[in-house]
Hints:
Layout: H1 2-7, H2 10-14, H3 17-26, H4 40-44, H5 46-61, H6 72-76, H7 79-91, H8 94-98, H9 102-120, H10 124-128, H11 131-139, E1 145-149, H12 159-163, H13 184-188, E2 194-198
Antiparallel strand pairs: 1-2
Amino acid sequence: MLFGALMGRFACGWLCPFGLLQDLLHRIPFPKKIKNFYGDKVLRCLKFWVLLVFVILLPMFAVDIMGQASPYFCKYICPSGMFLGGIPLVANNAILQDAIGFLFTWKLLIMLLAALLSVIIYRPFCKYLCPLGAVYALCNPISLKRLHLDQARCISCGKCAAVCKMGVGPVRTPDHLECIRCGQCIDACPRGALSFQSGESSPLQNK
């Protein structure tokens, strides 16, 4: 929460290992990459429900006789845990290989689906499922590090929106919940109208 308050979704753009894996998978050639599709905006709300149900409510109320809860998101959904932990552990442990059951197969299918979608859609896990991304997204509008738009320099050429793989319009909403602070829009701006700054946005910035 402290990191989110200071940096917003900077961690998603620069620190997340599964985000890096999705970036690399998206570089694989494919006949048609999908940037926008019907229902995309609705699906982006799913990560907030995942946060509410699997990270907050289930661990609070679905507990065992000792009052302990399972890490439900990690256990049943997270493909990152399977890729970075589950598969390496099983690959080197014969006892775990004999214990493989439905849960491992289910998580493996989710991981493979996430990998396939990453080739076609930019960062589908970050957009639609990641609860940590949802937490950082809520911090974007109030974080110390923000995307600043200098309207005096902006010529509304649309180059910043064109390069944004998260589908954000930096001119309209510089601190959009989906912005992962990657900085590609800053590099694409021919007039230097976009920059990272610290502090509160001016009222004119968000118009």
